[in-house]
Design brief:
about 280 residues; Polyprenyl_synt_CS; single chain; Polyprenyl_synt; 14 helices; mainly alpha; Isoprenoid_synthase_dom_sf; Farnesyl Diphosphate Synthase; about 75% helix
């Protein structure tokens, strides 16, 4: 098992343990359907790798990593309800499988489990709370004050995707007991990675095959969502170039961080490249 895959396996193992304690049975089934349906686990991997890069141990960050994945999964449940998307990660979305009300309850359950994992450290609670405020503002902006230009789109991408990526990396640095400047540098790195990730997502929604992507494509146009190719004059290739620019900015921020573990740092560098070249 290679280095990043071993970190993902650590997260998966702990995720199973956390979900096994969920009650009642009906809620447990719903949250397991959401959280164990696959996914790239990019955010929790960022948490673990950031902790190691900052000089900590993977085990120090695994609870925070699972927590940030649960927050992400909860947000996807809501996204699918808003979008009326009946597929997620190649399986039925939560609302399609269980109905709207149980899906909303499952989202709440995921958030509750996540914050129990963050609760031992006030700094972790603050980082995630800040991200959730940004995420909520991003969702609201997308629904009622949709951006119509590049500047507005980039701010939306920062809030909707970049903020939780930032929290993921900050949580890792916090778990390593890094100094505030290092926490900030890791956060900036991950926020830029998140924006690049969102731009790539928008491009894939326009260009990818739905079966290969694991979710419906063309949704942005169908729902009138403000994707990069809808609210700017960029075509898919130009949008991809912008994603690469954000990836480069992420690497510049990482260079400013104190990173005694060079192996973990190299994988964070690789991740910045992966998010702009992935095909699903």
């Amino acid at each position: 098992m290679d280095y990043p895959e071993s970190r993902r396996a650590l997260v998966e193992e702990r995720l199973e343990v956390v979900l096994d304690r969920v009650e009642p049975t009906e809620l447990a089934e719903e949250v397991r359907h959401v959280a164990l349906s696959g996914g790239k686990r990019v955010r929790p991997t960022v948490t673990v790798l950031s902790c190691e890069a900052a000089g900590g141990q993977a085990d120090d960050a695994v609870d925070f990593a699972v927590g940030v994945e649960l927050v992400h999964d909860a947000s996807l449940v809501v996204d699918d309800i808003i979008d009326r998307s009946d597929t997620r990660r190649g399986s039925a979305s939560a609302w399609a499988e269980y109905g709207y009300s149980p899906a909303i309850v499952a989202s709440d359950g995921l958030i509750g489990e996540a914050f129990e994992l963050f609760s031992p450290d006030p700094r972790a609670m603050e980082a995630v709370a800040d991200a959730m405020v940004e995420l909520g503002e991003g969702e609201a902006t997308e629904l009622v004050a949709r951006p119509t230009d590049r500047e507005g789109y980039m701010e939306l991408a920062r809030r909707k995707t970049g903020a939780l990526f930032r929290a993921a990396a900050e949580l890792g640095a916090i778990a390593a007991d890094a100094d505030p400047a290092t926490v900030e540098a890791f956060g900036e790195y991950a926020e830029k990675v998140g924006v690049a990730f969102q731009i790539r997502d928008d491009v894939l929604d326009t260009t990818a095959d739905a079966d290969e992507l694991g979710k419906p494509t063309g949704h942005d146009a169908e729902m009138g969502r403000p994707s990069i190719v809808r609210v700017t004059d960029l075509d898919a290739d130009e949008a991809a170039a912008l994603a690469h620019q954000k990836s480069d900015e992420a690497l510049a921020a990482l260079d400013r961080a104190a990173t005694p573990d060079l192996a973990a740092t190299d994988y964070l560098r690789d991740l910045a490249g992966f998010v702009v070249t992935r095909e699903r």
